[in-house]
Amino acid sequence: MKNKQSYQWxxxxxxxxxxxxxxxxALWARDLDRMKEIGISTIRIGEFxxxxxxxxxxxxxxxxxxxFLDLCVxxxxxxxxxxxxxxxxAWLTEKYPEVLxxxxxxxxxxxxxxxxxxxxxxxxxxxxxxxxxxxxxxxxPHPAVVGxxxxxxxxxEIGEFYSKADSDAFRLWARDTYDTLDALNEAWGTAxxxxxxxxWDQIYVPRPGNPGGVNPHMYLDYYRFISDSAIRYCKMQADxxxxxxxxxxxxxxxxxxxxxxxxxxxxxQLDVFTYDNYPNFxxxxxxxxxxxxxxxxxxxxxxxxxSVCPHFGFMEQxxxxxxxxxxxxxxxxxxxxxxxxxxxxxxxxxxxVSFFRWRTCxxxxxxxxxxxxxxxDRDNRRVAELKDFYKKLKALDPVCGAEYTAAFGLLKDYDNxxxxxxxxxxxxxxxxxxxxxxxxxxxxxxxxxxxxxxDDSSVEELAPYPVLFYPHPTLINEARVAVLRAYVEQGxxxxxxxxxxxxxxxxxxxxxxxxxxxxxxTGSNVTDFTFTSPEEEPVWADWDxxxxxxxxxxxxxxxxxxxxxxxxxxxxxxxxxxxxxxxRVDKGRVLHLGSTFSRENVRQLLAYIGVLExxxxxxxxxxxxxxxxxxxxxxxxxxxxxxxxxxxxxxxKQPGILLYTGERVEGSYSIPAxxxxxxxx
Amino acid sequence: MKNKQSYQWxxxxxxxxxxxxxxxxALWARDLDRMKEIGISTIRIGEFxxxxxxxxxxxxxxxxxxxFLDLCVxxxxxxxxxxxxxxxxAWLTEKYPEVLxxxxxxxxxxxxxxxxxxxxxxxxxxxxxxxxxxxxxxxxPHPAVVGxxxxxxxxxEIGEFYSKADSDAFRLWARDTYDTLDALNEAWGTAxxxxxxxxWDQIYVPRPGNPGGVNPHMYLDYYRFISDSAIRYCKMQADxxxxxxxxxxxxxxxxxxxxxxxxxxxxxQLDVFTYDNYPNFxxxxxxxxxxxxxxxxxxxxxxxxxSVCPHFGFMEQxxxxxxxxxxxxxxxxxxxxxxxxxxxxxxxxxxxVSFFRWRTCxxxxxxxxxxxxxxxDRDNRRVAELKDFYKKLKALDPVCGAEYTAAFGLLKDYDNxxxxxxxxxxxxxxxxxxxxxxxxxxxxxxxxxxxxxxDDSSVEELAPYPVLFYPHPTLINEARVAVLRAYVEQGxxxxxxxxxxxxxxxxxxxxxxxxxxxxxxTGSNVTDFTFTSPEEEPVWADWDxxxxxxxxxxxxxxxxxxxxxxxxxxxxxxxxxxxxxxxRVDKGRVLHLGSTFSRENVRQLLAYIGVLExxxxxxxxxxxxxxxxxxxxxxxxxxxxxxxxxxxxxxxKQPGILLYTGERVEGSYSIPAxxxxxxxx
Amino acid sequence: MKNKQSYQWxxxxxxxxxxxxxxxxALWARDLDRMKEIGISTIRIGEFxxxxxxxxxxxxxxxxxxxFLDLCVxxxxxxxxxxxxxxxxAWLTEKYPEVLxxxxxxxxxxxxxxxxxxxxxxxxxxxxxxxxxxxxxxxxPHPAVVGxxxxxxxxxEIGEFYSKADSDAFRLWARDTYDTLDALNEAWGTAxxxxxxxxWDQIYVPRPGNPGGVNPHMYLDYYRFISDSAIRYCKMQADxxxxxxxxxxxxxxxxxxxxxxxxxxxxxQLDVFTYDNYPNFxxxxxxxxxxxxxxxxxxxxxxxxxSVCPHFGFMEQxxxxxxxxxxxxxxxxxxxxxxxxxxxxxxxxxxxVSFFRWRTCxxxxxxxxxxxxxxxDRDNRRVAELKDFYKKLKALDPVCGAEYTAAFGLLKDYDNxxxxxxxxxxxxxxxxxxxxxxxxxxxxxxxxxxxxxxDDSSVEELAPYPVLFYPHPTLINEARVAVLRAYVEQGxxxxxxxxxxxxxxxxxxxxxxxxxxxxxxTGSNVTDFTFTSPEEEPVWADWDxxxxxxxxxxxxxxxxxxxxxxxxxxxxxxxxxxxxxxxRVDKGRVLHLGSTFSRENVRQLLAYIGVLExxxxxxxxxxxxxxxxxxxxxxxxxxxxxxxxxxxxxxxKQPGILLYTGERVEGSYSIPAxxxxxxxx
Lengths: 681, 681, 681
Fold this sequence. Notes:
- Chain A is an alpha/beta fold.
- Chain A is built from 18 helices and 26 strands.
- Chain A folds into three domains: about 15-400, TIM Barrel (Alpha-Beta Barrel); about 410-610, Rossmann fold (3-Layer(aba) Sandwich), CATH 3.40.50.880; about 620-680, Immunoglobulin-like, CATH 2.60.40.
């Protein structure tokens, strides 16, 4: 089922994150005035302020936020109110230590940080519900409030749960899921290593054991359980807020973290999804690993967020140098980068950009997550840049609500994703291929969407894409094969990589010729397979005289009758065997590549299918410039983003209107260092 | 005392590991038929199947294995039955958590993996004895059964024990060993850092303390205690099985793991020793360290196993790509490698080769330890290779029971071995020297045996070797010096390296001129010593104009009267001092090298003594081909093993019969990539 | 307040560390005779010998040390007696486990090592006081005893404390410090992430939480608390000893470890401070990181020790190869190095050099910390070297009590130091700048002193230095600014680096233009700042045509009126902005560098101020030779230390008397490999 969103911004909107509890009240009015002056119309507040409302158990006090929200009304500032459950008060965890999450060893995470609670303790659920009820009943009707953020960054930093409450809940989850221990033993393959469970009490969340000697089927269910726990906790809060919120106000949460089915959460619980965007991590000066394409790599995340919610917002957009006091050192964003990253967000589909945060906090873990203002509270170059950005943003109002243009689709699903948490073979393929498909799309200006595939996916969701990559659908079932078949039959091209279809949905391997259930689609037969060896010459295949990279792992393919061999391995002991096959299925076709994907073989496949560089007729831009299009009501808006510290020269092959200025441009155009341009074409 | 074995195979035998509990019963008969067709005559079963026999505490059920064993009789398949104690049932560890082993921090290893129990908990000993009694009394008389495997891989993965049961047992062990606390305090040197124990209750297995601030004498005893605990646990099972087993059936266990006196265990408890051989670890594609000579490095392990039991078996011989789901990624064995590794086992003395495993498991931690068959159950290239291998193996029946031919001996003992667990100086010498001696032997085609030296070793065990290396006998006592002296006096050549003889058997340093008790043999005096420094030029010595490497550490030697200086240091502050001395002792001699051993100085020493390249008159083979000889009743069988992906050219200097075909060969002969040849010469 | 010491040696004194409890009594007399023969007149004993005096709780026995001390009187050996509290007896920690320190996870450190106790358990305080009372009352009057060492190496190895006793004490410390929870909440910035404390029971020493999500203000107080705890524990012992000690005998402790205000401890509790010096760590052969300048890097530590106590002693001076049995492998000191390192100590201000240790211990963790003698007890090259060193040392008697000559000063304070424990930004600047200032001083022969700055520092302490570096006074307050101002006004030159003055003493950031309270002194304004990026060209500044390095971090400076710009950034987005400013303040001036310090920019600054190479008129020595001067009563003593394995050629520009021989030297002079020379000039 495709995600629909029940809330959308109707004009480009700029915001910031503000913490009234961090500052002397004397600063409030001036802060709001200065925000308004820059163009900020919406602020998020309250998401770490439990103690301001419930300073001791069961005693509630509203004076603080009453005063602040009334001031917001006076100043014309709109407010997104955050529920405060990410940071329980000291009195709470001291009195009820069972609410604490634990590490894998069973040692609690204590007070002093954030996200140290677990979703499953009954008392925490009760106390959370009560504070949300108090806040929502009081402030949802308030005229300043326009939306609600649930908790803060669910599953951020800590996405695994090992408390006693979690074991208790997992036991119930397992019983609900399997009904009988026989069914559970079968699903978890407990005949292996004598793991058979004979009483429900023997079930726990994963505990330390023989290092690495883990049950992958149990782990897979564990991650499903974690996701379900987080969503149930989110639902509990959403249900309360929905009772009180004004019509037109929205419920959201921020961030997209691991071990969480963000698609389901957004679809079932949220009106709109928001994201926290920090591309400056790519420029860290400590031992950070620098990603491919540096800050531009965040486009991968934005593509994933767009899959959750096409017209998302940015709750936290990086506004300054960032780090915790204890780790993650990075330079200040260079002049232009803050606007570049914000415009990158808009290009990818966001119509709301809220900067983190108004003023750099003078205390605590995040004294180095710099806001728009520094500690000294003076206007600075970032304020100046933001004013300029705001002008550009408002010039993009026609783009609000426009759709991102994708040349192809990438299929992803949570089952395969979570399987890679514990399966090191699977992880090695999937991470590599998804990364390489991303890089190929970027450097070839061939944008893509991610489509989340599930048992109830419909062919209507897939049909818009002429081609779909599903790199390594290791786990697959009949329902998903059926929708893939329907997609192909109506004319689509499906491309699969190595190791497809050798597991069922429990993560157990199927006793069928590979690619298992997918074989009827691929018309291919995996007769042998191997990792490629670092000791040997890289393996490649010959595709009509072209060299086709076949890295990491090789399925040695045999075509079934009616299947065409496009490329054959050129070396190693399986030289001559099929490496890439194609099978027509009704109006469409299925390609089966025996290896992982690389940026080069993806380029060749996109060219073969004819979807490479869809904007080549509109603009000629260097590889280092991102080219993105949004379209609405027949109007097309072309975003050009320059991530480099040098100006970039592009050529518009058709005339376009530069939205920032209204100026008509054709032919050569220069985008400044870290600069952007948006043309209507 | 030299290890004798009470069981030997009387013909070359091929087997596999089979898990009836993993598969639908419908597959059993066909599986057995297919095995027989390939040449497999023996299978191992049952070693992780406790729950199949005791599904709840005290309730025993035999229907499952009755049915399977009866089928084996029908199909003519012989069975090695494994006791199931490596993986206790979930009900057991849930009810009796005291049976769990703990990590050094005292945190238990929980259910879900294997080997998470400890040897010392009384209840686990009781429950283990009961399940073994039940199995042995039922199945030892069964006509299908030919042997028993105790537990699985004792001390594998986890070879240290820190549970309360272990502390309790260690306290008793210490009291048995020392009788009084005064004696213990003396042996453990507790005057240092005020460690003096004044009550037995103060004794524990090692617990976390000041990092690195460990008592090495206590640790040394701890490892002796671990070994004793494992052997006592093995004995408990062996005693039970021996009551029931048929005459001619054997008791074994598999694997050779750390902190365990395998020699004593084999001699006292087992009829024959078996090993699990996985040379493909050398080709891992993750962060595996690649050993010297890659897969050929496993020859070092096989030499060690042969020391435990000259005519051992292979219980698990690698049959496919291998890894756990969570780690250890490796390519599939290349065509030929599976046979190569199996033939390497035979060359080193094995007359039984059982492949791990019949079919790749479709569930659990080991879905990537590939068996002969893949998940899809189809015949594949490995089945074909195995059929070919079986023909070759049966052509080697004359070799069954033949002895491995060694040109020299290497002395090893457990006390020095375990001392290196905690002594980082000692570890640095010993690991380096043993590795280099191995490499020198391999690349110079000069095979060796390992001789385990102990207080009751006899000169008869040593006398067959013209030369013995004892690289760094740091711990030594009068009994061992006496047997070394007897060996030398009857004509042997003993070669010692740096740091010999400076500790007693408690690991305390002796207040004698070094090499301590060995000085009467070496006739040398260590007047100064030092690590060589990475900042300085490598130190070397001059040996009659030849450069002799003296790496890692240097004892600066002074010859006593009657001792000859063979080589003197050529640089550093001790240039001119003796680096290598030789002393005649009756009919033999003792060489004392002031440094560690290197592949180059070992080659020089072997040449000096005249044992280098014993097969040079038979065959001319490149360094990359392994040359191994087994001999029996005056017949000599020459194994040539090619580990490389290219064919290797060798020259037979005397005619030989290629056993695989019966063909007569002389002069040039080509061994294919990953190929082998066995000639009778 | 400058540290005064109440004890000074009145002649050059040589000692060693001796452990009578490690050796047969039969060795004692001969050992003492041999020591005397070498020149050793003082030994330290007893610091790990609790059980020798209190073998069981409350039973005291003195026969052992009575006998030994009487022998010392007989042999004319002076004794420093160590209290034994670093290693509690086994019976103590077994009976009272609450005395054990714990790691951050709360897991105890157990018996077997050392320093596994905590300072705050009441029972440990009680039992420590009792053993010290027993020892001091018995032995302080003893004629052999000349001084007392408290405990051993307070805070060594383990400098953090996480036991329950520590939490209990920290709670009281916090209450004493802040009086109210409101004040504590304000100081700790608990409004951030809802950390507000509402009961004292919620206060603990740091516990594990969200990884890295730490409260830096709480941590800063925690380190203050650790220091206070150690000093209070030291005071408890000093108070007892002072009751009994003979007039003229001294109280000391050894070592200078982290999280401890050594200046306050020395000033308030000790008569003299001693240090343990192991430069051979620099030559480790394992994975040790090799410091700048290798063993010569220990000059940095010696400079720090001199700051604590100008005429310190060396309680442990490296005498041989060193390591624990479990880690830290190093070669033997090369001939000459032992003397070189000892003379380096004397050059830096020590008048007492006690070698660690008499004879290498034959048991326990430290069998590889080699003493003067080896296990074999024979005279060796180190004994010979020591005899030679003793002659040289006694020739330096005129130097005893002489002052070290410093060309400039470096300001340090504990608040900033401890802030870097948790603040990774701050750590990155401060460690880099202090290291580079040290290296610049060494290679340019421009010695410096470290001055500990505190709230009660006086201008008299600072005035002797023409120039003071205070690289990154991130935390600063009015009191410290006042003394800096007074220093400058009377004519001093103060040099500050980037990131000055942006925090208050709680570690909270100040809402003022940077450099905050220091702005009135610097006359500069930080308008922007950033880490330099590894992706960009290194940033540098132009200083009148000279290139000035500005590494790691850049404050972009704006001069206030009256401030002169000395250098401006030459590249990056702030090219042209001020990088180095100078402001006259009364008779002095303040320089503000926008970056960290580098060895090259420090050299340029020292040259600009005119203090570079103060001995250039006396001696011409290569960079690799250390040049140090001590002076007393108008006499000047020039130490030249050659750390290299080759002889070094120097030129005396004025005639000098070589103290070792009395010979007059002028012009060329050669210092042998690892050699030293001391001239009176």
